[in-house]
Amino acid sequence: MNEQTIHTASAEETLSFARRCARLLQGGEIIFLRGPIGAGKTVFVKGVAAALGLKNSPTSASFSLMKCYQNRQNTLFHIDLFRLSEGEVFNLGFEEMLENEKAIILAEWPDPIAPMMPKDRLEMDFVLESADKRAITLRSYGPVSDALLEELCKTNAK
After folding, report:
1. Cα–Cα distances in Å, from 73 out to 63, 70, 76, 148, 155?
2. Least CB-packed of 34, 76, 86, 144 within 10 Å?
3. Which domains does the chain have, with CATH numbers?
């Protein structure tokens, strides 16, 4: 596991970080997003979707659990399992989602699905430090996410 923390000072900086992340995604990545309500998880998802050229802007998926956004080049699954337990997620169609090896999976409140997901993933923990300032701790598990983390930190340093 590798770990780095980045800081953003506004929603626009969080969006910018998400756009930089999206430019590095090739498909097949899984990113877990954790943090309290209002910490910037959905803002991050919106930034990734916009940078991928997806027309619909993601909203909180809390009430629909999983949304799929796609265009000719990209498929993005946005999962939000805020109120679910592990036992409640088995029949939600994750098998089909995982069969698409080029899809990008962004999962908010991912703990109920963690046992079903491949081990290689990037985890982002969003911490609201003050009004608009956030600390985002990134942890990578596996070669794909290790490379993503390394490139993200290089890109963020510029």
Report:
1. 27, 8, 10, 19, 23
2. 86
3. 10-119 (3.40.50.300)
DSSP type of residue 94 = H
Express each pLDDT in 78-99 by its tens digit: 988 877 766 666 667 777 788 8
- Give the pLDDT of residue 30: 93
Closest CA to 110 of 48, 32, 46, 41: 32
54: Cα within 13 Å, side-chain hemisphere: 24
Please compute, for residue 145, the number of CA atoms within 13 A of its CA located in the half-sphere on the CB side: 22
Report pTM: 0.89
* Whole-number pLDDT of residue 45: 94
The CA-atom distances, in angstroms, between 34 and each of 39, 73, 74, 81, 158 are 9, 27, 23, 11, 25
